[in-house]
């Protein structure tokens, strides 16, 4: 008898993915509810693959070298699976996602691009917790990062939902949508990321407003250097970021014309939820450095209801 590992039980693998998405995808999972069962199941597998990828690079309990090794190993496993090699049945999330890649025609470079984006977080010298440094020098570098960790994910999603002209007129609004979502996350997590040593606003943007990375920590905000002057600079910086991200949401609007009715529903729900998160960050102003803003469950439910209505819009 062959010593090869038995094929994974795909039904069990997909069920594991759905449980992970339900447990950890506090914003994404709500939007999946607008999809028919087969697409909802596939989105759970896609989410699980992305969640595992992100967690491998972001586990604070693991030493940096160990995380770098883990993400390289995950990339090797993913490359092998994309080539058609058998998947270790113990890696249920990967087995389910590979089935989605095959059936939905997801280009093989997209999941690898996502892994490369997470690996970029681990490259080079790491700042110490509480001593933040800027991760990017320019907006172009930030946008490249947004493509890898959000835009490529969005393109995978569009293959599941059904989308026309993914290599044509739909591509730019799809990438704008990814930038909008990721930059919304960056605003929400400013203080939390700074506490771990990371600032995802470009250095050129901070310099434009005379803000230092340490100013984003939020701790002792009332006593930070320069008193009211630095508070004013921070407020101007945050307003500028919110305005730019709103423009990204506007650039993403043409995407609705390219997706299937089911895709319009989930895209509507996701855009509403993340748009509300941006609104919360805007209303919080400088307090976004003191507390993590959230979208209430009732507003998420309203976004899902709007998504169902969007599916039937002519």
TrEMBL record:
Annotated Pfam families: SQS_PSY
Gene source species: Alienimonas chondri
Database matches in PANTHER family: BIFUNCTIONAL LYCOPENE CYCLASE/PHYTOENE SYNTHASE
Keywords associated with the record: Transferase
High-level lineage: Bacteria, Pseudomonadati, Planctomycetota, Planctomycetia, Planctomycetales
CDD domains: Trans_IPPS_HH
Listed SUPFAM superfamilies: Terpenoid synthases
Keyword rRNA processing: no
Protein name from the UniProt record: All-trans-phytoene synthase
């Amino acid at each position: 008898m062959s010593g090869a590992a038995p094929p994974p039980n795909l039904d069990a693998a997909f069920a594991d993915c759905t449980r992970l998405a339900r447990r950890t995808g506090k914003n994404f999972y709500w939007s999946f509810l607008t999809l028919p069962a087969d697409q909802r199941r596939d989105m759970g597998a896609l989410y699980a693959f992305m969640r595992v990828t992100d967690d491998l690079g972001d586990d604070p309990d693991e030493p940096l070298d160990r995380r770098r090794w883990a993400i390289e190993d995950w990339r090797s496993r993913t490359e092998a699976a994309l080539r058609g090699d058998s998947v270790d049945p113990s890696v249920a999330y990967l087995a389910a996602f590979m089935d989605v890649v095959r059936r939905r025609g997801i280009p093989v470079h997209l999941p690898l691009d996502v892994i490369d984006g997470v690996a970029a977080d681990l490259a080079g010298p790491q700042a110490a917790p509480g001593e933040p440094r800027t991760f990017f020098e320019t907006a172009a570098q930030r946008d490249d990062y947004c493509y890898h960790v959000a835009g490529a994910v969005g393109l995978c999603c569009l293959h599941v939902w059904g989308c026309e002209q993914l290599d044509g007129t739909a591509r730019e609004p799809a990438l704008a949508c990814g930038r909008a979502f990721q930059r919304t996350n960056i605003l929400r997590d400013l203080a939390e990321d700074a506490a771990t040593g990371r600032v995802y606003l470009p250095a050129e943007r901070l310099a434009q407003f005379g803000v230092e990375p340490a100013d984003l920590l939020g701790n002792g905000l009332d006593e930070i250097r320069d008193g009211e002057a630095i508070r004013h600079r921070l407020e101007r910086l945050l307003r500028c970021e919110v305005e730019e991200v709103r423009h990204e949401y506007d650039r993403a609007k043409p995407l609705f014309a390219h997706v299937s009715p089911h895709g319009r529903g989930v895209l509507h729900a996701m855009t509403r939820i993340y748009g509300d998160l941006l609104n919360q960050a805007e209303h919080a102003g400088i307090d976004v450095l003191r507390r993590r803003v959230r979208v209430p469950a009732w507003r998420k439910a309203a976004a899902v209801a709007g998504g169902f209505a969007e599916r039937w819009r002519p």
